[in-house]
Write a structure and sequence with these properties.
heterodimer; A: 364 residues; alpha/beta; Rossmann fold; 5-stranded parallel beta sheet; 17 helices; B: 83 residues; alpha+beta; SH3 type barrels; 5-stranded antiparallel beta sheet; 1 helix; 5 strands; 24% helix; binds iron/sulfur cluster
Chain lengths: 364, 83
């Protein structure tokens, strides 16, 4: 396929690996690069990129899988909503098997008779609400800046249609605040970030200025092998020659200013708010809540959702996995009690989760 | 779920608010309401969750490969002053 095959060209990939190896041989210190996007984690596993990199270039996964970072409390509140008699609960498929309190899940609730439907776009949830005027359709809004504008556009459509039975439970999250909090933590020294390609399509390159200002490299990367390897080579180049600013190694999808129209739609509907992240706790202004104009479409205003404080399963180490502190196989449950068919935590449920990627594409 | 795919526009519908795109042999409809570029038949769009979010520019696409080749060349010749 056009715009994919060129970036899988074996000769280009070989040359990039060779150039990285040469550059790595001259390093005094190992380099730690974090990929914060779940799609990068999956691509790195799928193409076996960790195995072909020199040992002193360490790739660690960060908190970029939207399903994984949704807090245990938000999962349980979603389960509460989905269990209402009058509700049709709509969600991206990835969330259905995430375990909540008492090992319940949306999938189990559905098997017990709740009306829970998988959608691949927020627009489908709006269409559902139009068709079923006597039921309340709730959409479980998760995702980063790539996805939240699509939820915002769907909300504008619901407003235009004057729907009375559509609402969103917004657990959307913002990427720059969590990256900033990782840089400030003492747990892990990150030399550079592979910045998320499609989040950057929306927010642009400037949003990562704080990373380069702190002396770390920030390179926006695509998702094919040459995209990722080229971005790693560029990070090494930046670290050696001096940080010159946020670099875009994914020009076919990212403009420096991002997608202004999508940003405007996002800002019209949502406003930043403090948010809880699995494994990272509460981070200031790192989530998105509906503006008051959209109160009629805000599930938190339309339902008396109990204020739960759920604790994740203490044996599951997703929290440390999401902070890049341990590899999934350091978790005692990995591959034994916890597999994609018997997941104990969200990192094993989502196809973009680090544990699922490690399970499917074991390191050699 | 953040996956986005490049698809080629084969038709427009509903006052050009919706594009029919072809991705690897299958057709899908995407909303154009989030796009801030003008588009034409045959253009490639990056699509995500029912929406087009970016028009892919051929020249920009070639630039990344040119950049990678430049980095490779610099590493080969040991000459790093490429900017
Ligand atoms: S392997 Fe399973 S239990 Fe362990 S951290 Fe990953 S998801 Fe949690």
């Amino acid at each position: 396929m056009k715009y994919i095959d060129e970036y899988r060209d074996p000769e280009l990939v070989r040359e990039l690996v060779r150039a990285i190896a040469k550059r790595a041989a001259g390093l005094d210190q190992p380099v730690t690069i974090m990929e914060v996007c779940g799609s990068h984690t999956t691509a790195i596993g799928r193409f076996g990129l960790r195995g072909i990199l020199p040992a002193n270039i360490r790739l660690v996964s960060g908190p970029g899988c939207p399903v994984c970072v949704t807090s245990a409390t938000d999962i349980d509140r979603a389960l509460w909503l989905a269990g209402r008699e009058e509700v049709i609960f709509t969600s991206y498929g990835d969330l259905l098997r995430v375990p909540g309190a008492d090992s319940g899940s949306l999938e189990k609730l559905r098997a017990a008779g709740a009306r829970i439907e998988i959608v691949s776009s927020a627009l489908e949830a709006v269409a559902r609400a139009r068709r079923e005027a006597d039921r309340k359709v709730v959409f479980f809004g998760i995702g980063f800046e790539t996805t939240s504008p699509t939820a915002a556009a769907a909300l504008l459509e619901a407003e235009r249609l004057k729907l009375k039975n559509f609402s969103v439970y917004s657990c959307h999250k913002l990427m720059p605040p969590v990256m900033r909090s990782l840089l400030q933590s003492d747990e892990l020294r990150i030399d550079g970030f592979l910045c998320p390609g499609h989040v950057s399509t929306i927010i642009g390159a400037e949003a990562y200025r704080f990373i380069t200002a702190s002396g770390r490299a920030a390179v926006i990367a695509g998702f094919e092998p040459a995209d990722i390897l080229g971005a790693i080579l560029l990070i090494l180049e930046e670290l050696k020659e001096g940080i010159s600013g946020v670099r875009i190694a994914y020009r076919r999808a990212v403009k420096a200013t991002g997608n202004r129209r999508a940003q405007a739609v996002l800002n019209e509907v949502f406003t930043p708010a403090d948010a809880d992240w699995r494994g990272l706790g509460r981070i200031r202004k790192s989530g998105l809540k509906l503006r008051s104009r959209f109160a009629a479409f805000n599930a938190e205003k339309q339902f008396a959702i109990p204020a739960l404080t759920s604790r994740p399963d203490p044996a599951c180490r997703c929290g440390e996995v999401l902070r890049g502190l341990i590899r999934p196989d350091a978790c005692a449950l990995f591959g034994r009690a916890c597999t994609p068919s018997t997941p104990h935590g969200p990192c094993m449920v989502s196809t973009e989760g680090s544990c699922a990627a490690f399970f499917r594409y074991p390191e050699i | 779920m953040c996956i986005s795919f490049p698809g080629r526009i084969t038709a427009f519908k509903e006052d050009d608010e919706i594009a029919v795109i072809e991705i690897g042999g299958t057709e899908r409809e995407v909303s154009l309401t989030l796009l801030d570029d003008e588009v034409d038949l045959g253009d490639y769009l990056l699509c995500h969750a029912g929406f087009a979010i970016h028009r892919i520019d051929q020249q920009e696409a070639e630039q990344s490969i040119a950049l990678f080749n430049e980095l490779i060349r610099a590493e080969k010749t040991g000459e790093n002053e490429i900017y």
